[in-house]
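Title: Prediction job returns without error message
Component: structure pipeline
Severity: low
Priority: P3
Assignee: unassigned

Description:
Job completed but the reporter wants confirmation the result is attached to the right record. Sequence as submitted:
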Amino acid sequence: MTIRRARYQCTATGRLCFPLDEQLALPAGEITASLAQRVSHLATHMSFAELQASAKLHYDARLSDSVLNRLVQRVGGVAVGDEARRVAALAAAGVGRDREDQVPRRRVTAGPKRLYVSTDGVLYPSRNREEIGGDRRRIVYQEMKCGSVFWQNQKGAWEKRVLNGREDAATFGLRLWALAVECGLLAAGEVIFISDGGAWCETVRQGHFRDARRIVDWYHTAEHVWAAARTLYQEEKVAGRWAGRCLALLREYSGIGLLRYLRRSHRARHDAAAAAALAELIGYIEPRVAFMDYYEYRAGGYVIGSGLMEATCKQLVGQRLKGSGRQWSETGAVGLATLISYRLNGDWSAFWNTTPLRRAG
């Protein structure tokens, strides 16, 4: 349906006014709430170019890049603002029962046997540029923090809830804690925090999941082993054999077994490059060795890999924010990723019931 209406502009402020919009309860902008919800949902799946073709095919609506960009900025901005207000209320409540009562929603009826909490960061291309010499400039990549809470339901199927953000680790950790509470943290039989050994991930754990069982993700540890192997040996096959030996020790004798082997190897190496590579790997494993008891983890049936977390990073950032020619402003990237998290978590309808277009003004 096409509605033609008069438009007026204030000569002093330049503000546009559509009197009929107020009478018909239409939101400000070029798109009705119904079409905006559908288009925003499509925007969490596909590029604007693909979205324009789909909108023309399914809704006979012609939408420009600028219209779509403004829509995602406005709606995503409301979503980000909602998250900021929620975490501010949590922070103001203080630690304890008062803070727990600030998390009214419960996504599960019974606490899971094991609740996993995981974090990771993923880079996306921004619109910022940095000088690299002469007239040359390159894209600046920003890190999006991603979090995931996952568990097995009573039927044995895996369930997952996610979130994203660009705030500091302490604030992001508080939001992740609230999501974990929604998913049964307080009633869970056991809580496991699994991530790589990054500093900000450890800040999240120390601040909000100190009592959880800590597991350093197997695949990130394996990446460090392979990085050292390729420095030690130029031939891929030889490097592969060395890495395989290390990972076998890690699997059967946990982090302490690998650490002993690396220390012996380090003492036997006389070339500086090899010694430095081994020292770097030892420096990664040594302070985290207590969280690398992979033999016991596997025997106990624990998840030791970050497959679900890697999938979360791909869903929140990789599939939509990355790609040829894609560059994002700060508000655009965070807003769109937040809308994606609402879709993945099943919160899409509840969010749109709060009339985000009207609240955007």
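Comment from assignee: result matches the submitted record. The beta strands are 8-9, 16-17, 114-131, 137-152, 158-165, 190-195, 213-216.
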